[in-house]
């Protein structure tokens, strides 16, 4: 054997449409090498403030499924725990590494620095570090112009099948997958977390495109039908048990099949499906559009995108407010029910995620970093490239997006008019009549409930919103602000809207689902 090729699995826990795996196998077969599929469990990564046990639970289940896939191909998955460079050095001593194949990763700041270190180590040791794009994100992008067309072409490329066999490396032990407790992760009870593994991802994709997704366009904004009508593919996309191109092509195929249906009896259903799939495809586009922002500006995870917002909020948060919000104990029922549902399930539909962040940033006037870290830990589907640009967007610190201050009471009445979602996650409000479920403090029986079993609101949401709006808009005036906002828009903004300057306040334009928070100013994903 003339050395080995390593396939370094990270956020790509599958064998289907895995270009690095296929390239490593093809190269190994040509030069008589073995291929070592490797996953490195990095305790330093999992100790970061945005990582959690619920995420590791999903990853661990996905690794078990990947182990089974790879064993069937003749080469077990190798698990090692520790520092990546140290592990590569240990392997290199006994099995000279010729090439390391991996997907490009738009991860958090820790993984960004780790990849730079690995790249330097490979260069110093004469090892080829071959990285392949996994989504529509473009590394070292010079201009956003044409990005959307690039995404379409990237997603339309032929899917790569799983290799028939992998040339094995027979003299290396497979290792063990540690548990959350063995990684010293904080206890994180999430009883209704989605299970990991490619088979579960494929089941969700098939059920969404065949039945669950029909009402997606109208149901996705509400947490009541949203748990069933949304695709629920986000954790599988985040950890790569299924590929973005695989999902996009499946959606395109379903849309084409629906267009060909002519039966008059299914006309209404066909119309629903066409709208649902159109909205879904837009959100796949949006997924990579926001990841591109962090790829182009890694400091987004740590610093305000627009520097005029520096110092606007206290950098040391009001701990009482932060804890109340994180526990779902603000006294605002719809906000608290949303947070408790997230704690219990590890998932929430997008509109409610946006509301949680907006309430923390505006009504509670918390700097976005600590609430952002809490939400990251709660999301099983935490995708840094989407999360941090969205956190800043919902906090009003980008300088190019509409300031959107959600009214948490109105949101509750709009999305949960009968209070069934609130009652499911706030059982302490069971006796509150329907007409007061969103404002229990206005109920004549509030005195025997609030302050004991459930808190009074920790802020007056209307006054808090008014104060926040004044402070945010006070920053947005002046030539200097607009010039910086224009530069940000040029680098990160959508090209479809045709809006050159987003640094000034503009009239809100509604989409059919009023989901503008998903996108830039006028609802365009890229």
- Total strands: the figure is 5
- Write down the overall mean pLDDT: 92
Strand proportion, as a percent range, falls in 5-15%
Shape: globular
Helix-strand makeup class? mainly alpha
How many helical stretches? 21
- Poorly predicted regions are 497-526
Strand order of the largest sheet: 3-2-1-4-5
- Helix fraction? 40-55%
Order of helices and strands: EHEHHEHEHEHHHHHHHHHHHHHHHH
The N- to C-terminal Cα distance equals 47 Å
Helix and strand topology:
Blueprint: E1 4-9, H1 19-31, E2 34-41, H2 43-46, H3 53-72, E3 78-81, H4 84-94, E4 97-103, H5 109-124, E5 128-132, H6 147-156, H7 198-210, H8 216-219, H9 223-229, H10 234-238, H11 244-259, H12 267-296, H13 319-327, H14 333-345, H15 350-363, H16 369-378, H17 384-395, H18 408-415, H19 420-425, H20 461-475, H21 479-492
Parallel strand pairs: 1-2, 1-4, 2-3, 4-5
Helix pairs in contact: 11-12, 12-17, 15-17
Features:
mainly alpha; 21 helices; 6% strand; disordered C terminus
Description:
The protein is mainly alpha-helical and 526 residues long. Helices cover 48% and strands 6% of the residues. The protein has a five-stranded parallel sheet, with helices on both faces. Helix 1 links the parallel strand 1 and strand 2. Helix 11 packs antiparallel against helix 12. The chain is globular, with a radius of gyration of 24 Å.
Could you give a quick summary of the protein structure above?
The protein is mainly alpha-helical. 48% of the residues lie in helices and 6% in strands.
């Amino acid at each position: 054997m003339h050395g080995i090729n390593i396939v370094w699995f990270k956020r790509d826990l599958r064998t289907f449409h895995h270009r690095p795996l296929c390239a490593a196998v093809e190269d190994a077969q040509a030069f008589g090498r073995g291929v070592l599929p490797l996953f490195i469990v990095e305790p330093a990564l999992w100790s970061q403030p945005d990582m959690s046990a619920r995420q590791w639970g999903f990853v661990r289940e996905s690794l078990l499924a990947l182990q089974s896939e790879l064993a069937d191909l003749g080469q077990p998955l190798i698990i090692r725990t520790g520092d990546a460079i140290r592990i590569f050095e240990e392997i290199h001593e006994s099995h000279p590494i010729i090439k390391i194949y991996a997907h490009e990763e738009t991860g958090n700041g820790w993984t960004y620095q780790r990849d730079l270190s690995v790249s330097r180590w490979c260069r110093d040791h004469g090892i080829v570090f071959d990285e392949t794009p996994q989504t529509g994100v473009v590394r070292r992008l010079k201009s956003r112009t044409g990005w959307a067309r690039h995404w379409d072409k990237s997603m339309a490329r032929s899917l790569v099948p799983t290799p028939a066999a992998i040339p094995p490396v027979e003299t290396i032990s497979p290792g063990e997958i540690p548990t959350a407790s063995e990684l010293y992760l904080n206890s994180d009870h999430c009883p209704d977390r989605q299970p990991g593994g490619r088979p579960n991802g494929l089941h969700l994709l098939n059920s969404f495109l065949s039945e669950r997704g029909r009402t997606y366009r109208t149901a996705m904004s509400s947490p009541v039908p949203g748990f069933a009508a949304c695709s629920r593919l986000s954790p599988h996309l985040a950890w790569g048990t299924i590929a973005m191109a695989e999902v996009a092509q499946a959606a395109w195929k379903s849309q084409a099949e629906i267009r060909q249906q002519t039966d008059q009896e299914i006309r209404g259903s066909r119309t629903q499906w066409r709208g649902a799939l159109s909205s879904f495809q837009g959100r796949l586009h949006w997924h990579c559009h926001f990841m591109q922002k962090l790829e182009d500006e890694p400091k987004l995870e740590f610093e305000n995108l627009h520097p005029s917002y520096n110092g606007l909020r206290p950098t040391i948060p009001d701990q009482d407010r932060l804890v109340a919000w994180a526990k779902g104990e603000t006294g605002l029922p719809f906000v608290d029910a949303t947070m408790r549902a997230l704690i219990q399930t590890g998932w929430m539909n997008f509109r409610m995620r946006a509301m949680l962040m907006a309430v923390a940033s505006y009504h509670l006037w918390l700097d976005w970093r600590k609430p952002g870290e809490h939400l990251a830990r709660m999301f099983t589907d935490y995708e840094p490239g989407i999360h941090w640009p969205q956190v800043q967007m919902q906090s009003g610190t980008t300088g190019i997006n509409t300031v959107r201050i959600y009214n948490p009471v109105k949101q509750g009445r709009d999305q949960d008019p009968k209070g069934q979602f609130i009652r499911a996650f706030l059982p302490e409000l069971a006796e509150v009549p329907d007409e007061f479920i969103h404002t229990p403090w206005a109920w004549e029986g509030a005195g025997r409930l609030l302050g004991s079993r459930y808190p009074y609101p920790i802020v007056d949401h209307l006054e808090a919103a008014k104060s926040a709006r004044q402070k945010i808009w006070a920053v947005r005036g002046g030539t200097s602000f607009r010039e910086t906002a224009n530069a940000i828009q040029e680098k990160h903004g959508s090209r479809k809207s045709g809006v050159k300057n987003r640094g000034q306040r503009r009239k809100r334009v509604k989409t059919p689902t009023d989901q503008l928070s998903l996108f830039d100013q006028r609802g365009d994903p890229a």
